[in-house]
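[job 0412] stage=fold_complex status=start
inputs:
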Amino acid sequence: MKENANYMGSVCPIPKTEYDGILMAHGGGGTLTHQLIQKIFISQFGNEVLDVLHDSAMFNVESKRLAFTTDSYVVNPVFFPGGNIGELAVYGTVNDLAMAGANPLYLSVSFILEEGFEIETLWQIVVAMKNASRKANVKIVTGDTKVVDKGKGDGIYLNTSGIGIIPDGVNINPKNAKPGDLIILSGKIAEHGIAILSARDGLEFESEIVSDLAPLNTLVSVMLNESKNIHVLRDPTRGGLASTLNEIATQSNVGIRIYEDKIPIAGNVKAACEIFGLDPLYIANEGKLVAFIDPENAERVLNKIHLYEFGKDASIIGEVTDNNPKTVVMKTTIGTNRIIDMISGEQLPRIC
Amino acid sequence: MKYVDEYRDAESVRLLSEKINSIISRNWNIMEICGGQTHTILKCKIEELLPPQISLIHGPGCPVCVTPIEMIDKAILLAARPDIILVSYGDMLRVPGTNSNLLEAKSKGGNVKMIYSPLDAVKIAEQNPDKKIVFFAVGFETTAPANAFTIFEAERRGLKNYFMLCSHVLVPPAIECLLKSGKNSIHGILTAGHVCTVMGYEEYIPLAEKYKTPMVVTGFEPVDILSGLLMVIYQLENGNCFVENEYGRVVRKEGNIHSKKIISDVFEITDRNWRGIGVIPQSGLKIKSKYSHYDAEKVFNINAIESNESNICIAGEILQGLKKPGDCPAFREECTPEFPLGAPMVSSEGACSAYYRYTK
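[job 0412] stage=fold_complex status=done
writing structure:
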């Protein structure tokens, strides 16, 4: 008899002798759907809100302002150095809430599974999501499962939505950057994108680069406790740091000036970018934030986040200017002024 | 990072810039051949460090840009066939053909795969024995040996389903074509470091003498570009016109003998149409007849195609250094990286894309 392997201290409760892979019936609403929900989802995500198993999650919140966000996850490969699609789906949505200054509370999760997807792999993803939601201190309170025919999906897609409460006195908005604001970047850039590339079919290089995937809500709380004068927060995910700064420059109608020698980047990531002709400023991060802060408070906030794991390499990388509105300029290490434009399409490596 | 940081060193850059400024006495037009150099110049704003007497003219060294439109149309036709997987380098996918590009062909169900190494094309052929794999092999001398090597590999692995759509081009005939035309009064040339890594620079010696034009084999970092410019200007100011090597950490006079042998084993020299420029005699590489069973053009019989260029795009003049991207009425208007009219707006070595990204 085949046995399921132990994954992060848990063993998949659906024996391989029943079904190895997802069947269409797992999305059909009948016995197999219930088995999947009970054995895989409830056993891991279970909490007082989810366990009611109603059509909607019901709960009370005590706040005048809520933040609400949604995101879908289609990462390929599903497992990559430093994480997997499940953790990404939890942290991605948690971070989007945190960037509004909110304390994330509840998440929904939808699974779109391709017929034949290994149940044990699904189990591993679910276990990882449970651990991630504990680490980020959020609860998964509602969800859905759909199955699509073999060949009509790519294994697994996830969607998570989340809500969080915004504390009084917090006013974070991409339009709020003001001339004089200093810009804090919370750590080294480009690790997620390069980790995914390194794991992807057809691109084999010796590398220990792992994704920076991490929840940022604790870091944001720490920052907001230190100063309420944080004007903008953003996580530079797709399009990288360059695109995020451009979005803020445009939305706030200000100029941004950054300094190349202040931007933290690991040597091996820099080397991988050189080899593939990629610009790390445009490579995705999943555990970094940029904060635009009143200059009088910036140093204090920086010193505080240096004490935390996800902020230990933080650096003040530049400032907001009142000239060149909607433009990001970088002082290069050779002393020239490079315009940093919004990403166009995807970054593709050069051919010669 | 060794071999990178020292070539981006602020102090070296400052000293080179001072030296150039101190020796220049008149106006000089200098062409950098390679699109990689163009991108460094624009990205690092090298012109901020140069005296106003230097005009940098951007050359034709963007392989994706000069690949003839009919070859792209052929690739698109092949990609649409259900029995074929077309594999290509990433930049090639967005280059406009007559009516579409390879990414569009992919979105309509064509099987198009992007690769980073030519050997991946062979691997894909091995993994998909029921499909025919066509590798769209473009580029200058730089990529020619690795591309040629795939044919050896396909032979060694006994693959019958591997083919090459070959559109290789050669740099020296293009330089001669530009110098001969005399249209853009080039006084000195930075030749392409990577091309010379493979081929060496013996071919450039007679060209420099014949056209009284100093040429410096130059790398791609800011210190390389400034050193190359300093060497060219020093020659110009002293009335010299020979070939020098700035990129000595990589380039030898005779090039890479082993790579040159692989190229000459698999390819032979042919006339080649350069997109926007026209046919340049003896400026391309084609697959030798003994390997014609790998030649996709022959095997799939796709010879007659009517291809048409955009009538607004001035890519040809840009590639010859006659105009700059800003001179094009479509630049940043109808033509953007998202909706490119011409290849130089697409490629990571194209001049239009460099101006789009690094200027406002």
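[job 0412] summary: Residues 315-358 of chain B form one domain.
[job 0412] exit 0
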